[in-house]
Amino acid sequence: MTATRKRLAVLGGVLLVLAGAGVAFAAYLSSGSGSGQTTSSVAVNSTISSNTPGAQLYPGSTSTYTVTINNPNPYPVKVVSISASASEVTSGGCPAGTVTSPAVANPAGTIAPNGTVNYPLTATMAADPANSCQGQTFTMPLTAQLASAAG
């Protein structure tokens, strides 16, 4: 047998082995189809509570008070806005709207899952409040819009 024939025989044998391996590999391939399922949580509303009442107001004055917003959800949230507010009628007969608080858009910070953050707000007393407004506590109804900050 000549050298050329030996080389051809070896090359042929190698090709045969590779072809057989390819067929054996292909014989183990398969595919499947189906589906999977998961669920999503339901957002739980936050609450706003009074934290610090701020300095006492007098006609035409402004004071900073603090509220705490909680996040009862299992994911972080960002406060998108806190509503403007006007005081309710007091137990002493001070008229509604005597004290106002402007809206706050995009206050800084993120509230961690199941966490709380304090936010400073501004309250202003009317320049000419009724005499019945002296020594009163003013309740400021507020709402906050929150958005998930998961990422």
TrEMBL record:
Species, as recorded: Actinomycetospora atypica
N-terminal signal peptide: 1-26
Keywords linked to the UniProt accession: Signal
Protein's recorded name: DUF11 domain-containing protein
Lineage: superkingdom: Bacteria
The keyword Signal is annotated on this UniProt entry: yes
